[in-house]
Amino acid sequence: MSVLSFLANVAAVEQSAVEKVRQFFAAGGYCMILLALCSFVMVAAILFKLLSLRRELIVPAKLERKLRDYEHQHEASPGLFEEIKDGRSPLARLCGIALRHRGETREQITNAVQAAAREEVLHLHTGMSAIDVIVSLAPLLGLLGMASGLVVMFGGLGENPDPTLVSRGISEALNTTVFGLALAVPAIVAHAFFLRRIDMFVARLESVLAGFARTCEGPVAVPATRPATAQVPV
Predict the structure, then answer these.
(1) DSSP 36-89
(2) Mean pLDDT: which of 1-5, 91-95, 167-171, 209-213 is highest?
(3) Tens digits of residue pLDDT in 27-41
(4) How many CB atoms sit inside 10 A of residue 166's CB?
(5) How far is Cα 154 from Cα 60, in angstroms, rounded to an integer?
(6) What is the dihedral of CA 109, 112, 118, 121, to 10 degrees?
(7) Which end of the chain is more exposed for a tag (fewer CB within 10 A), N or C?
């Protein structure tokens, strides 16, 4: 009986918690619908960036170690060029660009890699715009809900005050403001965290690719000097 009563109490607590959440959203008015949509978008964007901004997907440790060894020893590890050819990571794809320009000058290789790297960096920022929009939009929707709640509240303060309208307006104003700020705070933290992580990966890519470009560099062409002609005395 004690176990059954405990489970019954847990179910009652969960039911009351769900009811409180429902009342919270219902008291917030129509703006809560938009804020709830923003919360789903924010959670989806954060999960997407957590899954996509992993080191093994961008700068694999094994490939980086093979490239470092190739830079210092000038001897390719087994499977290095096959992994570059597969192009499963931005590092592998950019190394493939450098290999296609092998034998050219370092400046030509660097320019080719930098042109392709811009597109890879854009791919790394995919999903960041959604978080950026939530950072700006959530507080504004909270303020909009607060203004709407104040309109409802003052509507109940006429010649015949209506306490129901006043309490409804206060609830709408407070609930939307709190929810909007509660969405903006984790969105700001996530935005800063992912930007820092992207910068770290970009710096790592630049470091590895700079050394790999030196190994792909061709011999510097020395301009041919014209032999000096001996002057015949007159």
Answers:
(1) HHHHHHHHHHHHHHHHHS-HHHHS-HHHHHHHHHHHHH--PPTTHHHHHHHT-S
(2) 91-95
(3) 667 888 899 999 999
(4) 16
(5) 60
(6) -50
(7) C
